[in-house]
Amino acid sequence: MLITNYITSAWRNIIRHKLFSIINIMGLAIGLAAVMLIALYVRYETSYDSFWKNADNIYRMHYTISLPGTTPVKSSRLPPIVKSYLVKDFPEIENAAHSIGQDAVLNYAGQTYRERVYLVDQEFTDVFNFDVIHGDIETALDQNSNIILTKTMAQKYFGDNDPIGETITTQIRGFGGLNVDYKVAAVIEDIPDNSIFEMDFIMLFDRKYIVRPDIWDSWTTWVPQLYFSLKDGSDIDAINAEMTNFINRNAARNGRMAEGDITNTIGFNAVPLKDLHLNDPGTQDMRPHGNKDSLIIFSFVALLILLIASFNFVNLSTARATRRAKEVGLRKIVGASKNRLVIQFLGESIVLTMIGLFLALVITEITLPYYNLITGKEIQLEFLTQDIIIIALFGIIVGIFAGLYPAFILSGYRPANVLRSNKSTDDKNTNRFRRFLVVTQFAISISLFVAMAVVYSQLKYAQNFDLKFNDEKLLYLTVSNNNLVKEKETALFEEFRKNPNIESFTKSNVMLPRTYIFRASPIRNLETGMETNIYIYSFGYDYLKTYEVDLLAGRDFSLDRND
After folding, report:
1. To 10 degrees, the CA torsion angle through 415, 419, 421, 422?
2. SS3 of 204, please?
3. Hey, is 540 helix, strand or coil?
């Protein structure tokens, strides 16, 4: 009953001073909404791949190569042969599987689609758990001719029909453009967006279709990614510490380098699955990585916004509170204790905060779709989970801290002095405190504006940075069937030459800018005997002309010369 009276009294006071209440509540609501949006983004970015059943025990092996004369390069693609030696040498590994994303052309019922597919080992479904809608995931990868689809892809290709047993013809880039028929063996739930995986189609590696099957037994090629799960109680740090010995024990004996030389050239390091999005040194995932430093900055900005909103709320509440001195004096005369007054004013502060929090939730929910468009994420505010409990507790805590100072200032007034003075009691301490809050607000706000200006200038610099080639008016055509292109290349290029809208064209195995090694090869200076390594990329005639690259020396390749 007493709590009801406090809430009723707080509500009446809010209604009595509508303008003040609206200003105070809206200021708090907008600030809290901004904090919520940032907090949702930070939580989303830090939750990548945490939904897997055994996420805490899943790792990906990474590869570092340090070639003479080049900057060390980190990659998530390994020599395929590493898997068998890794499983043999480390009994702590429960399951291990390769995977690699590939471009593919899929054909069904006369319709052709360009998709991204995952080629995996049979053990892939042992490392990762999937929610199955149709079929049997345990046997789905028993056959080389089977394929697994997500719910969205099953709906796209087959509508409401049962897709199990249906055939899809695929043309995978890594298979040399061969047409291969696959039967649908299972349909799984869509992989959440907060994952490094973009798995719509999953199928087995089939070495007989690979253009160069010999690379599967080589230590000098980097093709698939390697994921593995550990048995309970295993220590990943101990495995990482053993990698140098592992390389000497296996790569040195089976590769082309001597022991010691190879460990100075290559290195392995296992990275937890849940850390890959923010801490992955590789660059070969289908989805872009996050930035841990950016999240720290965003969190700091959210804290500053929260401080500004809270200081503003406290300042306005304190300013209003000093106008209620007579009310406090009368309440004390009729017997109200200091504790009751503190509880009353804290209650009013909490009620105001909860109203502001409710409005902040409304603002967040309304702006979230636009926020997702800007961030490119699929962030959701879950009202039926622990989110609502955390938000409510957060509102109560903010309300208590925001109302503590005004409550104790007001409850400390002496009735006789207040009633005798017939005016508000803005004492020196109160004014000093309010001035401190105002100055702090301005300092934080100015700091944020300066930081925004710096970030904006850096973005402009990055956007206008000279890449040493012209990336405007360029169109890229990704080809999945290299054999077909070779057959039709002359006719295709002739059509390009006839088109008046095409200034120049070329072909290559990479698109600029490229940040990781495609292929490296040692070269030796015949005069000095010094050896270094160069990156090798393949491209056709007019490559430099098409990209408008300025030559420092020499000339471009020409059809008129073959030297």
Report:
1. 140
2. strand
3. coil
How far apart CA 484 and CA 360 sit, in angstroms, is: 57
Q: What share of the chain is helix, strand, coil (3-state, %, to 5)?
A: 50, 15, 35
DSSP letters, 387-441, are: HHHHHHHHHHHHHHHHHHHHHHHHHT--HHHHHHHTS----HHHHHHHHHHHHHH
The whole-angstrom separation of Cα 309 and Cα 239 is 48
Long-range CB pairs of 256-262, under 8 A, 24+ apart, other chains included: 256/219, 256/220
Q: At what angle do helices 292-321 and 386-411 cross, to 10 degrees?
A: 40
Q: Is 104 left (phi over 0), alpha (psi -120 to 50) or beta?
A: beta
Q: Which of 432, 403, 414, 404 is nearest to 325 (CA)?
A: 414
How far is it, in rounded angstroms, from Cα 458 to Cα 210? 44
Q: Is 469 helix (H, G, I), strand (E, B) or coil?
A: coil
- As given in the structure block, the two tokens for residue 146 are 């089977």
Residue 402, number of CB atoms within 10 A of its CB = 28
| Residues 193, 44: Cα–Cα separation, whole Å | 10
* The CA-based dihedral angle spanning residues 130, 136, 138, 142, taken in that order and rounded to the nearest 10 degrees: -120
Q: Rounded CA gap, 264 and 297, in Å?
A: 36
Q: How far is CA 330 from CA 90, 119, 527, in A?
A: 79, 79, 100
User: How is 120-186 classified by DSSP, letter by letter?
Assistant: E-TTHHHHS---EEEE-TTTTTSSTTEEEEEHHHHHHHHTTS--TT-EEEEEEGGGTT-EEEEEEEE
Q: What is the pLDDT along the chain (563 residues), one digit of tens a residue?
A: 556 766 677 677 777 777 888 888 888 899 889 988 998 999 999 999 999 988 999 999 988 877 666 667 778 888 888 898 999 999 999 999 999 888 788 888 888 888 888 889 889 999 999 999 998 888 888 888 899 999 999 999 998 888 999 999 888 765 656 788 899 999 999 999 889 888 889 988 876 666 566 667 777 666 788 999 999 888 999 999 998 888 888 875 555 544 445 556 778 889 999 988 887 655 566 677 788 888 898 888 888 888 888 888 877 777 766 666 666 666 666 656 667 767 777 777 788 888 888 899 899 999 999 999 888 888 888 765 666 777 777 777 877 777 777 667 666 656 555 555 555 555 555 667 667 777 777 787 888 788 778 877 877 776 677 777 777 778 777 665 555 566 677 788 888 888 888 888 888 777 776 545 555 566 666 777 666 666 667 777 888 888 878 788 887 777 776 65
Cα distances from 9 to residues 150, 313, 314, 344, 348, in angstroms, run 56, 19, 19, 8, 8
Q: CB of 148 within 8 A of CB of 185?
A: yes
Task: Find all residues with CB under 8 Å of 290, minimum gap 6, and list them.
Answer: 45, 48, 277, 278
Please, which residues bridge with residue 170 across strands? 106, 180
Q: Which tokens belong to 339?
A: 């504790």
Is residue 246 a contact partner of residue 63, using CB atoms and an 8 Å limit?
no
Token duo for residue 316:
């306005």
**DSSP per residue over 543-556, as a string?**
HHHHHTPPPSSS--
